[in-house]
Amino acid sequence: MENYKDFLKYDEAVARFKEWQASGLDKERPFGVNELREAFLSFFESKGHLRLKSFSLVPHNDNSLLLINSGMAPLKPYFTGQEIPPRTRVTTCQKCIRTGDIENIGKTDRHGTFFEMLGNFSFGDYFKTEAIHWSWEFLTGIVKLDPERLYPSIYQDDDEAFAIWHEQVGIPAERIFRFGKEDNFWEHGSGPCGPCSEIYYDRGEKYGCGKPGCTVGCECDRYIEVWNNVFTQFDNDGHGNYTELEHKNIDTGMGLERLGVVIQDVDSLFTVDTNRALLQRVCELAHKEYKADHEADISLRIVTDHIKSCTFMISDGIMPSNEGRGYVLRRLLRRAARHGRKLGIEGKFLANLSSTVIELSKGGYPELDEKKAMIFKVLTEEEDKFNKTIDQGLEILADMEKEMAQTGETTLSGQNAFKLYDTYGFPLDLTKEILEEKSLSVDEDGFAAAMKEQKEKARKARKTTNYMGADVTVYQSIDPAITTVFTGYDKLEGQTKISVLTTEDEIVEALTDGQKGTVIVDETTLYATMGGQQGDTGVILGANGEFKVEDTIKLQGGKVGHVGVMVSGMLQTGETVTTKANEAQRMATAKNHSATHLLHKALRTVLGTHVEQAGSLVTEDRLRFDFTHFSAMTAEELKQVEDIVNAEIQAALPVVTQVMNLEDAKKTGAMALFGEKYGDQVRVVKMGDFSTELCGGTHVANTNSITCFKILSEAGIAAGVRRIEALTSQGLMNFYQEEERELHQAAKTAKTTPAGLTAKIEAMMEEIKALHAENEKLKNKLAKDSLGDVMNQVKEVKGVKLLASKADGADMNGLRNLGDQLKEKLGEGVIVLASVVDGKVNLMATATDAAMKQGAHAGNLIKGIVSLVGGGGGGRPNMAQAGGKNPAGVDAALAEAEKVLEGQLK
């Protein structure tokens, strides 16, 4: 800590201000917004802070935010310890957008969607003393605010901050305000938190409410907060228990435009110098004067605010869409377009106004000037789309309003609101705003239901989808003249230009952090899925962004789509980028692809020349090869094929690729795939004198790179088509390692070594066999014992003996064994046995030859009684069985057996 005595104290600051004021130099004081930004950043650079440029409005790896809305938001990883900051002291001017109350923007001049937040941050470095002194020094010494108009506030229990303000800075105690938790303590659930110290500026009575008690904290515009120091010193466990943090942080924020309001002594954010210049340009286009008409003022403020937000959002790669931050942009853009029309601005005007935004702000944000061509294009195209539908949409809405008036309705139905959205491009918010101006409302729940129904219909109707599940029309609408050249046969990395960008459902000018989409370039080193070979993964790197390629796909018209997600920054159409294929994946895939060529030739050698390739799949992990053959391969044939392939791998055959016309290729004896369409120029892949094929895939330079080859399975998949699954190189090593792991685990379970596992299993099988036989003997004995002496239960039905009895505990197998034993005792006749095991019923019936000759039928007998035990079953005339779920019906079923048998006998 620097010696606080060196800091500017209150009394000295007051004296200096009066002296400066008396000199007349105060008339030169008003800082422009751009000057204030530079003054702040330079001041904190002089205090050892690293100046960082503003982060993108698109949050990076932060799903809690749609758009960056504060200076500290993009620095959260540094505060949480997830990332190490580039320096422990940092200063920024962060562009921010807040859209929580878009519908209220313009109604007053107090709020806007876009603002800039000045900040100085300490990550475990300095703390309260420096933060307070430096904020005081900047406000009184650099921008020369009147010290007698500045009032600090502190958290009610923060005596440390009070002591710094009172004893070190020298501010009288009565000028320091203590406020409670809701005003001066920052926390968001559990985690780091702490008290705040804000600095208020008294703008004078002309901005006040005139009430006797008007002071710091009043809701009027007299006392305005210009600076907020957050002292992150506690950790909240989520239950109201606070512990002191070992490493304390400083997070300060000061709205640049708000500071401009104070220093320039203007009435609102809209009249600071830069915003006033933009507002004036809107007035010129509309032929209006600001502050002459209340309704016109609302529209003037809306257009001024929204065009600034739109310009900055598009510069960071945000594109208009119907969801997420793209929807926020579309909503702002169309709201501005509508209010421009209300003001009487003729024709397209958004790009015109955007050029004013860029001119006013490019000093602090040079990316605006760099991206202006894209910004103008996006604004113009979106304005065109809206203009084509808004007039008709407004007419339809007017008709709907008339119908509502006739029926006395004040709420537009959800179906009608959805019709405006779906057919005429009216965002729900726009419909709401138009109706609210006439004290009408919208059935938002009904709109949501109609939206859900439409999405469900679209999902069911969609038959053809791309890799990302989106309707393929997003690709079909691309200019057919656009093509992609694959340059990756002999390299993995190359420079090219982006020709097209798409999200999952529309063509866009840019993709930003976190967005899923497709990148199409003029030339690519990434191989697209075709010919059975899986597409490459990799990255596309631009000057300001990185796109992770999760799949590379072949599109109509010779285009290649790189499908994936933006992992950081942004990419835009026309930008020069670098494509980089995943080297490990490419090499592993090439080994498997080259192995399929060797396999194809080996199969033709062993099985005959009738073998033709019928399909394949080549990935980095494995290979699959389908071929024509009419019987299962023998173990000997599989071994022969495997041996041939491995021999050619060991032979280290050079793999040479030549491009020639199709006729010349055929003369070389190159094998072509059955049914495949080839162009005039083809690639011929030759592996020594062993294999020559037409192939557009990627391959190894020498067969010895494949290392080894192993067939895992061979099976039929269709009439006359067989399939081989195989592994090579690292994939095979991984397979063997897994097999080895499983072998050791099995040996461990069997309490032996891998070498002794076979003998151990054989011994265990013999033991199991003996135990099973012993178990069956015991079960039969138990069943027999449970049955007891049942021969006295034998009845005679029309001259045929019937034994119907229970043998509880016996399973179906036990009942059959009992039936065989009882037949020996009974001689000729019919036996019906029942048992209950675990609450379920088993029924079994058997009939001898003599009984069957007299009409007995075991299957029909079971059918006749099984319903009484709640089951079903049947069988042959001599033996049948069934199961049931009702044990209570067993006695009735056995009694019914006599009646059923009597009905069968002649």
How much is the average pLDDT? 89
- Taking pLDDT < 50 over at least 5 consecutive residues as the criterion, the unreliable ranges are 462-472
Structural class based on helices, strands and sheet pairing:
alpha+beta
Quantity of strands, as a count = 34
- Based on CA atoms alone, the radius of gyration comes out at 42 Å
Give the overall shape. Answer: extended
Number of helices: 26
Helix share, percent: 25-40%
Q: How much of the polypeptide forms β-strand, as a percent range?
A: 15-25%
**End-to-end distance, in Å?**
116 Å
Task: Please summarize the sheet with the most strands.
Answer: 9 strands, mixed
Describe how the helices and strands are arranged.
Blueprint: H1 10-22, H2 33-45, E1 50-52, H3 76-80, E2 89-97, E3 114-123, H4 128-142, E4 150-155, H5 159-168, E5 177-179, H6 181-184, E6 185-186, E7 191-202, E8 223-236, E9 242-255, H7 256-264, H8 273-286, H9 294-315, H10 324-342, H11 350-361, H12 367-370, H13 372-407, E10 411-412, H14 414-424, H15 428-436, E11 441-442, H16 444-461, H17 473-476, E12 485-486, E13 493-502, E14 507-508, E15 510-512, E16 516-521, E17 523-524, E18 538-541, E19 545-555, E20 559-572, E21 576-581, H18 583-607, E22 613-618, E23 623-628, H19 635-650, E24 655-661, H20 662-667, E25 681-687, E26 691-694, E27 709-718, E28 721-728, H21 729-749, H22 757-787, E29 795-797, E30 800-806, H23 812-826, E31 830-837, E32 840-847, H24 849-853, H25 858-865, E33 871-875, E34 879-884, H26 890-904
Parallel strand pairs: 1-2, 4-5, 10-11, 12-17, 30-31
Antiparallel strand pairs: 2-3, 3-9, 4-7, 6-7, 7-8, 8-9, 13-14, 13-16, 13-21, 15-20, 16-20, 18-19, 18-21, 19-20, 22-23, 23-28, 24-25, 25-26, 27-28, 29-30, 31-32, 32-34, 33-34
